[in-house]
Amino acid sequence: MPAIKSSACGKFILVGEHAVVYGQPAIALPLSSRRITLYVEPQLLAPSGKIKVFFPALGLDGEPVDQLPSNHPIYRAVWEVINYLSLSQSPSCDLRFNSQLPIGTGLGSSASMAVATIRGLSEFLGHTLSDAVTNELAFECEKYVHSNPSGVDNTVITYEEPVFYQKGQELVSLTPAADLHFVLADSGIQKSTGETVSGLAERYQADPALIKPKIESIGQLAKSARRAIETGNLAEIAEAINQNQRLLAELDLSCPELDHLVNVALESGALAAKLTGGGKGGHILALVKADRVETLLQNLITKGALNPFHTVIRGVI
Ligand code: PMV
Predict the structure, then answer these.
(1) How far is the CA of 150 from the centre of ligand 1 (A)?
(2) pLDDT in tens, 188-205
(3) Alpha carbon 134 to its chain's center
(4) 41-92 pLDDT tens trace
(5) Three-state SS string across the chain, please?
(6) Residues tagged active-site
(7) Half-sphere exposure of 256 (CA within 13 A, CB side)
(8) Is the CA virtual torsion 251, 254, 256, 261 positive or negative?
(9) Ligand 1 pocket: which residues have CB below 6 Å?
């Protein structure tokens, strides 16, 4: 029996993180060049039900899956698949992951682990699941990783296309009118999304009159960015990104290191820059014209960013 291979991309949120948790729309883009890949290798001689996890970037070297923390995306995804297929256990196998996606830095690593696991294990079990079911199960996993996920991460990662996402609304796939070039850069600070989401929830509860209008304004920016993406209006996309960063900073979701990288990007000719994901650390994104990419990468490295890289979202022309 040969190994089964599956994979899932990363993601970055262009406009609307956090506001999307409160029912506002957000725009999320796939990071197809940064993937988590999984090989499921059958262990025919092992007693049934033994699943071992190998994931060098997480320091996992053959740990039984049931000894991972119960909120770990791989543990949850295995459990979700077995439950969904109404099995009592899985035949024994090794789950061998490798990741080009930085972990825990706002690029969707937990949802990507869940989607890769759901795809690989379900195929191994002879029941390849549809994208709709994969997305549903990955959302269940996300609920354990942080308690109140909007569902945007698992959705963009499952479908691997630019999306305009709003909780409870039909998903809208976006087709950019022109190529969009981005540089992403890591601040080097790891912050749990669960903590930033619950921190904002507390502030919202304490002072809704202050927080609600900012959340609604972010939703408006997602709508204007959607129009601008579909018509190829780079200046309007840039304006939405910059305004979104201002609002995220006012919501206390930025930090000095992210502000520094945003400023470096803007001073290096980026059209716009903001934090992306849970905030208080993790990555920034910068929207940039193709001919400024190299300068921006160099300047970010010189000014302390970790592993900046270029990614393109292809347009129709
Ligand atoms: O930090 P990440 O990649 O998990 O992104 C989280 C996005 C939030 O809007 C902050 C949370 C959510 O569930 O949508």
Answers:
(1) 7
(2) 999 999 999 999 999 999
(3) 16
(4) 999 888 888 999 999 999 999 999 999 999 999 999 999 999 999 998 888 9
(5) CCCEEEEEEEEEEEECCCHHHHCCCEEEEEEEEEEEEEEEEECCCCCCCCEEEEEHHHCEEEEEHHHCCCCCHHHHHHHHHHHHCCCCCCCCEEEEEEECCCCCCCCCHHHHHHHHHHHHHHHHCCCCCCHHHHHHHHHHHHHHHCCCCCCHHHHHHHHCCCEEECCCCCCEECCCCCCEEEEEEECCCCCCHHHHHHHHHHHHHHCHHHHHHHHHHHHHHHHHHHHHHHHCCHHHHHHHHHHHHHHHHHCCCCCHHHHHHHHHHHHCCCCEEEEECCCCCCEEEEECCHHHHHHHHHHHHHCCCEEEEEEEECCCC
(6) 153
(7) 0
(8) negative
(9) 13, 17-18, 20-21, 106, 108, 149-150, 152-153, 193, 197, 277-278
272-276 and 93-99 beta bridge pairing: unpaired
Which residue is associated with the tokens 């201002």? 246
Positive/negative CA dihedral, 243, 249, 254, 259: positive
